Amino acid sequence: MSSILLCSAPLTGHVQPMIAIGRQLVQDGCEVSILTGRKFRPHAERAGIRFIALPDSCDYDEASLNERFAGRARRPAFLRSRFDAERMFAAPLADQYRAVLEALERVDADTILAENLFLGMLPLIGRSPGTRPRVFGVCTSPLMATSVDTAPFGPGLSPATGRLGRLRNRVLNAGARGVVLRRAQQVAAAATRDCTGAEPPCFLLDWVLHAETAFILTTPGFEYPRSDIEQRLTFVGPILPAAPGDAPKPPWWDRLNTDRPVVLVTQGTLDNHDLGRLVEPTIDALADTGALIVATTGGRPIAAVRRDSPNLIVSEFVPFDLLLPHVDVMVTNGGWGGVHFALSHGVPLVVAGSTEDKAEVGARLARSGAGVRLRSGSPGPARIRRAVETVLRDPAYRTRAEELAAELAELDATRSISQVIIGRARSGSVG
């Protein structure tokens, strides 16, 4: 029986897919442990996964990131992403690595499966395969790794090939490493030297390319092609939580049975502290139209939405797999999971996001043809209205979303990952 250690930064969007994979591995006969934040203990244990807590230096609550990381809130979107790379992901690297070594002693794992922003893998991946367990990576976000065919991750630039395109990519990637993420790489390098006495084997965002494989949680139709690293990538589709079978329908549910277009707007569960960035402008944009607006607050009180309209429904939370079959367009700030929920139901999108990885998600959506990207995290009502009307008016967006839904339906992420990991364990192959 294989013993597998899962590793994740303590962020819901990273931990949830790892627990889903762990549940499948348990069902397939593996012993599974997870190293992550304390708040996720109940979730892991319900899935039959042994829980191991990260040390306090690596643990934080996403609901209070600005309190834990002083100065984060003052930074605009671009500088906040750089701040997060340095403070939230690179700085805990050494303590994460030591926690991994301690966990390995406790569970004697022969395989590690880590999500791409658990940078404690960087020192481990530099060791020769014979001196460590086999390592797999899971990309719980758009792929961040460097490629000759793509610009650096972050600003949401489209890929470019050909001689001039690759020259552009090379210059921009050098700038990202040497300027934008220089401090984050220095922090990661110092931590790696502290742990192992050696330099890191690669750029901090590229460690997944040194794993046995990097599992990509989407379909190739939604990611950029990368000719130089495609052999290291395995596309398995998204991991989306299903609604409970007995989930009650809210009292307003019958309003969805309408000939009016239904527009869903959400800011997800992380970047929803200010619903004036997208939810309220979308309500303002569509209040005097024939659309039915469904606004979800991502767990915040309904009173946090400071708007009212006869064509508006506000809810703290509605299971997306129940709601989306009734939706014509989804307006979102571009969370990876939420976008894939919509695409899995063939729903086209309007994406307006600028924090975390949201510009990159928006760029991929625009390139896929399944929606419209607004290059702002706080678009005005007029821009939102034009974008929604464009998607509703042009059937090509719905057609492309339905094509991606068909691609996604052919993939089963948790089963595919489990099969690969168990197959490698049985064969004894490494690297």
UniProtKB/TrEMBL annotation:
Fetch the CDD domains from UniProt. Answer: GT1_Gtf-like (cd03784)
Identify the domain of life. Answer: Bacteria
A biological process term (GO) from this entry = glycolipid biosynthetic process
Q: Name one GO cellular component term.
A: membrane
Question: What Gene Ontology molecular-function terms does this entry list?
Answer: hexosyltransferase activity; UDP-glycosyltransferase activity
Where is the Erythromycin biosynthesis protein CIII-like C-terminal domain positioned along the sequence?
Answer: 282-409
Is Transferase among the key words of this record?
yes
Q: Sorted alphabetically, which InterPro entries does this protein's record hold? A: EryCIII-like_C, Glycosyltransferase_28, GlycoTrans_28_N, UDP_glucos_trans
Q: Which UniProt keywords apply?
A: Transferase
Pfam families recorded for this chain?
Answer: EryCIII-like_C, Glyco_transf_28
Q: List each copy of the Glycosyltransferase family 28 N-terminal domain by range.
A: 13-113
Q: What is this protein called?
A: Glycosyltransferase, MGT family
